[in-house]
Amino acid sequence: MAQAKISAKASEGQQQPQPQQQQQSAGQLRGRFYRSTSMADRSSRLLENLDQLELRVEAFRDAASAMEQEKETLLEMIHNIQNSQDMRHISEGEREELNLTANRLMGRTLTVEVSVETIRNAQQQESLLHATKMIDEIVNKLLDDLEDAKIRLMSLYGACTSDVPAGPIDQKFQSVVIGCAIEDQKKIKRRLETLLRNLENSEKSITLLEHQKSSVRQSCNNKQD
């Protein structure tokens, strides 16, 4: 009986882990836990940094797009000044000097190169080419019939705006534009706005010129009478 109790005690002592072993096991578990927590923290910080960078990238692209638009606006304004009625009603020397200044400004504006590439899939690329072709066909016929070209351009513009259009909408063009990338849709709309502004300015110039010719003819007739 005594021998059995001694054997039982020995077996119990072997089964119980030593304090040092318990500490090592606990340390290993804690080490694995701490490493996992640290990896999660790093991943979270990296993701947060990328989210912030994404905002900056989009802001950067927006700023570049704004510069593109500003360049287009400046070139259009310089061109309008050079072709304005006021330029026709000043002396030859003054007109030459102003044109030199305008050409200098035009040249300096063109030295600024800003390009924001739009990411497109194959369908969006095809839609952009189709929409561009439809606009170009009208532009190429501007001199043939100015009034008809204006009406057609207005119908294209009506297909690009969310506002209630003043006239009919080109449904075919609208379906093509919808297939374009969002950035391309904005550029198409801006191009149509520019074309319509130039047409309006041309009509004003033609009207003013016709009025001046009429005034001259009337003056000549009065002198003959």
Show the helix and strand layout.
Elements: H1 2-15, H2 19-82, H3 85-88, H4 92-110, H5 122-139, H6 146-158, H7 171-178, H8 182-224
How would you describe this protein?
- With 225 residues, the chain is mainly α.
- The chain is 81% helix and 0% strand.
- Helix 2 (19-82) packs antiparallel against helix 4, helix 5 (122-139) runs antiparallel to helix 7 and helix 6 runs antiparallel to helix 8 (182-224).
Overall outline = flat
Give the N-to-C terminal Cα separation.
Answer: 156 Å
What structural category arises from helix and sheet content?
mainly alpha
Tell me, rounded to a whole number, the average pLDDT: 80
Would you count the extended β strands for me? 0
In terms of DSSP E residues, the strand content is: under 5%
Reading the helices and strands in chain order gives HHHHHHHH
Which short descriptors sum up this protein?
0% strand; flat; mainly alpha; 8 helices; 225 residues
